[in-house]
Amino acid sequence: MQQATKHSTTIAVQATTLRRVRKADVRVDSWVKPDGLDLCLELWKAWIAHDVDRDLGTKTMRGMSGEGDGHGVDPSEAQQASDMRIASATDAMIDSMARIHIWAIYTSCSQATPWRFPNASFVDVALEARSELTRRLKNNVCTAVLF
C-alpha cells in the first residue's frame, strides 16, 4: 500500500512542477522554401540512376484504391508521375545546353567521369552551368512552379 501512495504522491509532485511557457520563449524555425534547382537535380539524379519502369510494364488494379467509383487516384503514383515529369523536363533542359555545361552538371551531380576540359576551370563552368540551368528551368512550364 505504501508504494501506491508513494507513486501517487510522485505523480502529484510532477504535475505541480509543470509550468506554462510564454510564446516569446519558444523559438520556432521558419519554413524555408527548398531551392528549385536542387530539387530538380535530385529528381533528375534519381531518374537517371533508376529504371523508370520498375513494374515491368504491369499495371496495378487502380480501381481498387479509389473511393468506390472505380476511378481512384493513388497519391503515391500521382507524386511519382509528377517527379518523373520534372526529371524528364530537367533532362531536356540539360541536354539543350552547351557541351561543357552539360559535362559540368553531370560531373557536379556525380553522373560523369572526371572533368575532361583542361583549359576550363570546373568551378567557374559549374557555376555558369547552374545559373544557365536555373534560367532554363524557370522558363519551363513543368518546373517553373518550383522557383
Give a written overview of the molecule.
Helix content is 53%, strand content 0%. With 147 residues, it is mainly α. The protein has a domain at 30-54 and 74-146. Helix 2 (36-49) crosses helix 3 (75-95). It is extended. Residues 58-69 have low confidence and may be disordered.
Shape estimate? extended
How does the helix and strand content classify structurally?
Answer: mainly alpha
Measured between the Cα atoms of the first and last residue, the distance is 66 Å
The count of β-strands is: 0
- Helix content range of the residues, please? 40-55%
Strand fraction equals: under 5%
Low-pLDDT residue spans: 58-69
Compact overview of the structure:
This protein has 147 residues and is mainly alpha-helical. The protein has helices spanning 2-16, 36-49, 75-95, 99-108, 122-139. The longest helix has 21 residues, at 75-95.
Topology summary:
Layout (H helix, E strand, L loop, with lengths): L1 H15 L19 H14 L25 H21 L3 H10 L13 H18 L8
Core attributes:
single chain, 147 residues, mainly alpha, 5 helices
